[in-house]
């Protein structure tokens, strides 16, 4: 609401300024001034220097942005292939930076050098093969190199050897949460289908499949350091995107198909927390939080909890109203801790059994919900009929 008011005030101010300049123009009527619509040499000079001013603004803002916000970018990658992605990204940035600095400079310099002048006539030529060759060949070669390097990186990252010893984990996306399913002892995920979703079996795992018997469903992802983890993604409803920023991994989750991504984590959560850049970052966040907490407490609110770093799995597709909150904590353990953590989890088969056992005594309660649903349906039908009748009368 406040921002709307601010926008309205700004618009009104702009209108007022515009009207003021019109009044100012009217007061100048009759005064000796050049009011011709053709630009004079003086006009051209002024425009030329203003353009240089804008060029300086672009350069200064770029440098300022790099100095002020450059440290906010993701730092050390936490996966084996991460440095490959970062390399590709950095090369692209450097290229863009160099090209932008040179082309913007040339653009403004030539506009200034060839600005309007009464004594100069523009030279007309239909085309220049040499020029066109230069501006076509150079970008093509540079882009081809970038794309080839990108393809090389992509193939390297996406290749999973069939015989390789990997950990199979399913990531299940739905509005608005993630669930993970571990393949268990056999390291084979059981079949699944959204049509089989029922009760605690929220992922629709086909429990008649022998491979599904030891599958484990959890809401916090644990993975071991130094071991390749092969993720298979599914989505229940709309497009989601599994995004692990620290591991430089992202893959769309598409309803009706299984997508995949594999990576090897290289730092445990504890190790990553100890990296100097992370210690500094967390200290900085907590400094800001402490200031904010002091403000909140002064207003009678509660203080914020101090921040500790955790890897996250985020959703990177705007998938609905609570998309911003669609995340899952990811913990990278040492292989021993990972084994211990997984061994303490119950399998989905056990969960289903336990749920069935817990439900039995409460069986009498089930019909009530059925009755309630039936009553609601009847009321809906009555309302629809009345609506139709009213509409008919209105038509007449
Ligand atoms: Cu999502």
Automatic annotation (TrEMBL):
Transmembrane segments: 47-67, 88-110, 133-152
Membrane disposition: Multi-pass membrane protein
Signal sequence segment: none
Gene3D superfamilies: 1.10.287.90, Cupredoxins - blue copper proteins
Domain Cytochrome oxidase subunit II transmembrane region profile residue range list: 66-161
Main location: membrane
Sequence ranges assigned to domain Cytochrome oxidase subunit II copper A binding in this UniProt record: 164-344
Keyword Transmembrane among record annotations: yes
SUPFAM superfamilies recorded: Cupredoxins, Cytochrome c oxidase subunit II-like, transmembrane region
Keyword Zinc-finger: no
CC terms in the record's Gene Ontology section: membrane
Subcellular location: Membrane
Protein's GO biological process: ATP synthesis coupled electron transport
Enzyme Commission number(s) from the entry: 7.1.1.9
InterPro entries: CcO_II (IPR045187), CcO_II-like_C (IPR002429), Cupredoxin (IPR008972), Cyt_c_oxidase_su2_TM_dom (IPR011759), Cyt_c_oxidase_su2_TM_sf (IPR036257)
Keywords for the protein's UniProt record, in alphabetical order: Electron transport, Membrane, Oxidoreductase, Respiratory chain, Translocase, Transmembrane, Transmembrane helix, Transport
Molecular function via GO: copper ion binding; cytochrome-c oxidase activity; oxidoreductase activity
Family: Belongs to the cytochrome c oxidase subunit 2 family.
UniProt name for this protein: cytochrome-c oxidase
Gene: coxM
């Amino acid at each position: 609401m406040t921002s709307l008011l601010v926008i309205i005030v700004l618009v009104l101010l702009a209108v007022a300024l515009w009207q003021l300049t019109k009044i100012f123009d009217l007061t100048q009527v009759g005064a000796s001034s050049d009011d011709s619509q053709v630009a004079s040499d003086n006009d051209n000079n002024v425009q030329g220097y203003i353009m240089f001013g804008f060029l300086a603004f672009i350069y200064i803002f770029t440098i300022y942005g790099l100095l002020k916000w450059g440290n906010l970018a993701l730092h050390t990658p936490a996966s084996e292939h991460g440095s490959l992605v970062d390399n590709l990204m950095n090369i692209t940035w450097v290229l863009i930076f160099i090209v932008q600095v040179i082309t913007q400079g040339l653009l403004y310099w030539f506009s200034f050098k060839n600005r309007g002048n009464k004594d100069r006539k523009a030279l007309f030529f239909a085309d220049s093969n040499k020029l066109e060759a230069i501006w076509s060949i150079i970008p093509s070669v540079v882009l081809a190199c970038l794309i080839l390097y990108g393809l090389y990186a992509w193939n390297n990252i996406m290749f999973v050897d069939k015989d390789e010893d990997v950990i199979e984990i399913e990531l299940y996306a739905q509005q608005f949460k993630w669930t993970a399913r571990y393949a268990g002892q056999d390291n084979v995920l059981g079949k699944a289908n959204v049509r089989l979703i029922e009760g605690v079996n929220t992922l629709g795992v086909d429990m008649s499949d022998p491979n599904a018997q030891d599958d484990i469903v959890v809401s916090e992802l644990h993975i071991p350091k130094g071991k390749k983890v092969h993720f298979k993604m599914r989505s229940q409803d709309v497009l989601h995107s599994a995004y692990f920023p620290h591991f430089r991994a992202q893959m769309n989750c598409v309803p009706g198909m299984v997508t995949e991504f594999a990576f090897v984590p290289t730092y445990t959560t504890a190790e990553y927390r100890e990296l100097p850049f992370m210690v500094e970052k967390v200290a900085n966040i907590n400094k800001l939080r402490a200031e904010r907490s002091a403000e909140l407490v002064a207003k009678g609110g509660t203080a914020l909890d101090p921040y500790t770093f955790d890897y996250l799995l985020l959703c990177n597709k705007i998938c609905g109203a609570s998309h911003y909150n669609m995340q899952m904590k990811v913990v990278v353990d040492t292989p021993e801790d990972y084994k211990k953590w997984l061994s303490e989890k119950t399998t989905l088969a056990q969960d289903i059994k336990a749920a069935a056992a817990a439900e039995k005594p409460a069986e009498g309660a089930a019909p009530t919900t059925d009755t309630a649903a039936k009553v609601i349906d009847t009321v809906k039908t009555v309302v629809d009929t009345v609506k139709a009748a009213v509409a008919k009368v209105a038509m007449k």
